Amino acid sequence: MRRTLYGGEYFDPAATLGCGQAFRWERTQDGFLVFAQDRACLLRREGESTVLECEEGDLAFFENYFDLARDYAAINARVCAFGIPRLSAAARFGRGIRILNQGAEETIFSFIISQNNNIPRIRGILSRLCEALGGERAFSGRTFRAFPSAEALAGQGEAFYRSIGCGYRAPYLAKTAGILASAGTAGLYALPSPQLREALLRLPGVGPKVADCILLFAFHRTSAFPVDVWMEKAYRSLGGTVCGREKIASACAEKFGALGGYVQQYLFYFEREGNENGIHND
């Protein structure tokens, strides 16, 4: 087991995992157990630092997964430099958030499942999916299931996806799995963001918001700005006047450029968690 310490305030596991990027993780007594593709790690805070524990050969994978080579202090400062008081407050509140580099297949499936769904149900569906189709792995004295391969996902029909609780999303998942198994995702990484978004939108079950989530959380296209009901509220709190989620996403992408995804995560987390922590009142 490899134990690595990351100092500073710009890597907070609770904030990073709690802002809607990923769903395959569990709380432990003192931190988090995170599953990504076919690997697992433990995260916990020790004082002002974060401890990451993983298998010796998985350290580079998780350093990339949590985007640990990037200077988030500089990103946070650039977001605050927009000079928008509420955005600056959100950036300070969520300064420990990092944008994950997740596997494309897992992210595509997760966010198709996420549509019109709540987080406990999303996590339950993904758990059943992995239990049924994922290979067994061992980590830290326990077993877990890997996220299934595209071929395993494509080998199931609509009835299977309904049986694990996917509901109306079942035909979308069955068809998208077939496309991913046939075409793969490797070629997507080289596409410019507009063409990549168009390719994602051609997948059954992927609409604009889901495409933007995949762009941001799998392909790290940080100009993407996913908009849901929380982000509509956050946008209004900044004094925004554009109507319609796609138009809001376009307006924010234009205003914030390559910082848009970071802005989105800070605002999303602040909108959901700030009130709960007594930081702001609406």
From TrEMBL:
Keywords: DNA damage, DNA repair, Glycosidase, Hydrolase, Lyase, Multifunctional enzyme. CDD domains: ENDO3c. Residues 113-272 form the HhH-GPD domain. Its EC number is 4.2.99.18. GO terms for biological process: base-excision repair; nucleotide-excision repair. One of its GO terms (molecular function) is class I DNA-(apurinic or apyrimidinic site) endonuclease activity. It catalyses: 2'-deoxyribonucleotide-(2'-deoxyribose 5'-phosphate)-2'-deoxyribonucleotide-DNA = a 3'-end 2'-deoxyribonucleotide-(2,3-dehydro-2,3-deoxyribose 5'-phosphate)-DNA + a 5'-end 5'-phospho-2'-deoxyribonucleoside-DNA + H(+). InterPro entries: DNA_glycosylase (IPR011257), HhH-GPD_domain (IPR003265), HhH_base_excis_C (IPR023170), OGG_N (IPR012904), Oxidative_DNA_repair_enzyme (IPR052054). Coiled coil: none annotated. The keyword DNA damage applies. Belongs to the type-1 OGG1 family. This is DNA-(apurinic or apyrimidinic site) lyase.
